[in-house]
Amino acid sequence: MTIDAQLTPKVADTKIADTGSRAAPRKGRRLRAFLRNPTFIAGVAILAFFVLLALFAGVLFPGDPQDMVAQPLLWPGDDPQYPLGTDSLGRDVLAQLVYGTRASLLVGVFSAAIGLAIGMVVGASAGFFGGWTDTLLMRLVELFQTTPTFLLVIVILVIVDPSLPTIAMAIGVSSWPTVARLVRAQFRSLRESDFVMAARSLGYSRLRIIVQEILPNALPPVIVAASVMIANAILTEAGLSFLNMRDPNVLSWGGMIGDGRDQLRNAWFLTALPGAAIALAVLSLNLVGDGLNEILNPRSDQS
Amino acid sequence: MRMGRRIAATLKRTAIHAGPTVLGIIVLDFLFLQLMPGDAADVMAIEAGSATAETMAMMRERFGLDQPMLSQLASFLGHLAQFDLGYSPRFNASVLEIIMARLPNTVLLMLTALSFALLLGIVVGSVMAAWAGRWPDRVLSVVVLLLYSMPGFWVGLMAVVLFSVKLGWLPNDSNMTIGSSFTGWALIADRASHLVLPALALASFFVAVYARLVRASMLEVQRQDFMRTAHAKGLHPLLIQLRHALRNALIPVTTVAGMHLGNLLGGAVVVETLFGWPGMGRLALEAVLARDFSVLLGVLLLSSLLVIVANVVIDLLHAWLDPRIGEA
After folding, report:
1. Which three-class secondary structure state does DSSP give residue A86?
2. Is the Cβ pair A272, B158 closer than 8 Å?
3. Minimal CA–CA distance to B208: which of A122, A120, A5, A282?
4. What is the pTM of this model?
5. For residue A230, which of A108, A189, B170, B237 is within the disulfide window of CB 3.0 to 4.6 Å?
6. Rounded CA gap, A208 and B255, in Å?
């Protein structure tokens, strides 16, 4: 215990000393790279806009967005009070769009969090321990990857009735294999590196080596994957709500498309607008992902 | 001769590898479906409007729904070994028959969408790589990124607005004109016109995926030594790009195409429902809503098999593209 306590700061010191000369300026450069990357900035700006909309939906549009407020099927621009028109039930389309931001972002973030958590645990165990653990877990990954994701989500949502939490859970549970593969590859290449050897020789527990030594170094590609996962989750959620597998009490963009589909011939804007909102939200996440990829994995773009 | 050996080796590897996966999928799917609330007898009772407890029990007994779970699984596996996927109480036909009636439509839709996505993706990606960093690349990058972000079914709906509602060029429902009696070319034209919009909707996302991938791998190939050699030999630049660069860039593209096949099938569920396309994806949704487990199980199983078969094809394709792969 005392030896360990004495050694710990030393290891920490040598680690810092080893990379310190490069790490400090690299951090600064990375920050500047973030600020100088137009893709990343554009993505963050659009995303921030959507987050603000989701947070302040109640302030911007007090009252229930599901209430009938005007005559049905007003076209955008017909009435300045409802700039994006009304749907077949006389509900304000703009208010619905703003409230719909919440469902998309919540499902996106939570499903990605679930997917990342499962994927990281499975990937880290498979990559770190190797052997039969690896074989077994990779078989499981293969099993999930061979099953069409969307069908799997639908099956789960038949077992548990669709609501925001269960939709997020279903998408998360079916999206982890990609992360698992990614993390496994990182762990396999990192587990033989010098700093892990050093940690091993000091008798650190496996859990500590996995969580504190390897994981931080394995994160960059996972962070990039996370933004793509949120984007895909939003697309999946839209498809589900379109098929009427949605939380009946929550407004969602996909659900708006599904409702508007009946008016495709006389009021196509009811379908076009929520779809454009989905596209813009997903675009912002893809821009953030592309930007992060250029900054965190600079080699991928140059070689 | 060498090709024959390679094909045999690939098939052997797949058989060893895919066997346990298929078994795992069967058991996993079966467990999933056992967790579902209600069974086919419930739904049929609701649809009939009334049912006594006795008729319900009779239906359950007839379709084996009253057996314990493990014996249901055992009997399912036993039947499966004889290529018998079971009987659908709802459709009143064998599951294999129902699925086989839908499978060709789905395969046609998927192959059309996939070829379309690959073709356009390769062309766009190559153009982007050839003009990397200049305006054609930048403009196309934005277009591709937009396609990458739009839900496929929404692209389909917008295409319906433009091509069916506004222009009246293309039909947007089912896979043929109902009640028509076309023959020869008229039949093919009719089928093709019904295929365009669903295939477009299904392909839109994957066009973007392949274009991005082709651009990246084409740029990567340009740095290889054999490219410099080809230039030094004085080959025509177009020939170099097609025979040397593209051929190598296609390897990651085909790999990813195989990985995305499951997603393509998933996308088909939404697109087939949207366009009333009588395929497996829509069947899956119908089966879910009707709680017809045997049909859903069959669809899931066949989808997975389709993915496995496609990956074998891709393995073989790799062998043709790059003879070095998998030789050891």
Report:
1. strand
2. yes
3. A282
4. 0.82
5. A108
6. 36
Handedness of CA A218, A221, A227, A229 (dihedral sign): negative
A296's CB contacts (< 8 A; 6+ apart) are: A220, A221, A223, A224
Instruction: In whole angstroms, give the CA distance from residue B288 to residue B37.
Output: 11
The number of angstroms, rounded, from the C-alpha of B98 to the middle of its chain's C-alpha atoms is 18
Q: Are A146 and B311 in contact (CB under 8 A)?
A: no
Concatenate the DSSP letters of all residues of A128-193 into one string.
HH-HHHHHHHHHHHHHHHHS-HHHHHHHHHHHS---HHHHHHHHHHHHHHHHHHHHHHHHHHHTTS
Whole-angstrom distance, CA of residue B282 vs CA of residue B288: 10
Residues of A in Cβ contact (< 8 Å) with B150: 275, 278-279, 282
Angle between helices A2-36 and A269-296 (to 10 degrees): 120
DSSP E strand boundaries for B45-92: 87-88
Chain B residues whose beta carbon lies within 8 Å of the beta carbon of residue A286: 145, 148-149
Contact of A261 with chain B, judged by CB distance below 8 Å, is answered with yes
Tokens of B117: 């996505």
CB neighbours of B19 closer than 8 A, spacing ≥ 6?
none
| Residue (of A111, A128, A132, A76) closest to A268 by Cα position | A76
**Amino acid type, B54:** E
The percent of residues in chain B predicted with pLDDT above 70, rounded, is: 83
**CA–CA distance, B188 with B186 (Å, rounded to integer):** 5
* Mean per-residue pLDDT over chain B, rounded: 78
The H or E element containing residue A118 is helix A93-129
Tokens of B286: 């119908």
Write out the two tokens for B86.
Answer: 């079971």
Q: How far apart are CA A191 and CA B216, in angstroms?
A: 29
Give dist(CA A212, CA A15) in Å, integer.
13
Model confidence over B24-48: pLDDT tens digits?
877 877 777 677 666 666 666 666 6
Instruction: Dig out the tokens for B32 from the structure.
Output: 């999933």
Residue A181 identity (one-letter amino acid): R
C-alpha pair distances (Å), B3 with each of B7, B162, B221, B226, B315? 6, 48, 26, 24, 12
Give B21's contacts in chain A (Cβ within 8 Å).
Answer: 139, 142-143, 146
A297 reaches B (C-beta below 8 A): no
Tokens at residue B258, please? 């195989």
